[in-house]
Amino acid sequence: GAVVSQHPSWVICKSGTSVKIECRSLDFQATTMFWYRQFPKQSLMLMATSNEGSKATYEQGVEKDKFLINHASLTLSTLTVTSAHPEDSSFYICSAFGGETGNTIYFGEGSWLTVV
Amino acid sequence: QQQVKQSPQSLIVQKGGISIINCAYENTAFDYFPWYQQFPGKGPALLIAIRPDVSEKKEGRFTISFNKSAKQFSLHIMDSQPGDSATYFCAAHPKSGAGSYQLTFGKGTKLSVIP
Fold first, then answer.
1. Cross-chain Cβ contact A105/B51 below 8 Å
2. If you count residue pairs, one on A and one on B, with CB atoms under 8 Å apart, how many are there?
3. Percent of chain B clearing pLDDT 70 (strictly above)
4. B105 vs A107: CB contact, 8 Å cut-off?
5. CA pair distance A70, A75, nearest whole angstrom
6. CB-based contacts of B16, cutoff 8 Å, min separation 6
7. Per-residue model confidence as pLDDT tens digits over B15-57
8. Nearest residue on chain B to A112, judged by CA atoms?
9. Alpha carbons B82 and A32: distance in angstroms, whole number
10. Do B49 and A103 touch (CB under 8 A)?
11. Which residue from B minimizes the CA distance to A10?
């Protein structure tokens, strides 16, 4: 199946700093990418939908100025957590979809963020 | 209307037994129903998926049963193995219109297969 790669797999940052997470589709062009947040033992919570070349659409309650999403190319989307705080610590997962994948949406391996 | 209800929350099955996880949805615009398997600390991996024009799909030990009129679908894992122990999520998305390809997830089922 198609491969979606996330980097870094885990990151520790200091409170008040910003951290960037990358999501890449390795073997298909991802016209749409989704960013999720997952707390322990819970389901995935959609944060935003990004289409290549346009602004991301954020879900209700997600601060767009805090979670900056960029989808500048058909193979790369980035999530930047700005001015991170301990409550932003979570597992962040991206998924991607493109015409070549049919209906299938593929997920990355996730990125653990710990803010200390 | 966007909800997907999944049950049970947790499931313990003996090795070799059948694991059954059920999901129900309300949004009739949903057009694609995938199941994802997630191991701790990893992203979800697509297991099997079905379209509403098919009542059953089988891939190896995994079978999806789909009941369009009842708006229910289920995952059956035959001959369950300890390596199947993971959290399983059902999901659904509409193919077109508002929220197209935007997955709505169930809350997940933690499956434990004991030897």
1. no
2. 53
3. 97
4. no
5. 11
6. B79, B80
7. 999 999 999 999 998 999 999 999 999 999 999 999 999 999 9
8. B41
9. 35
10. yes
11. B41
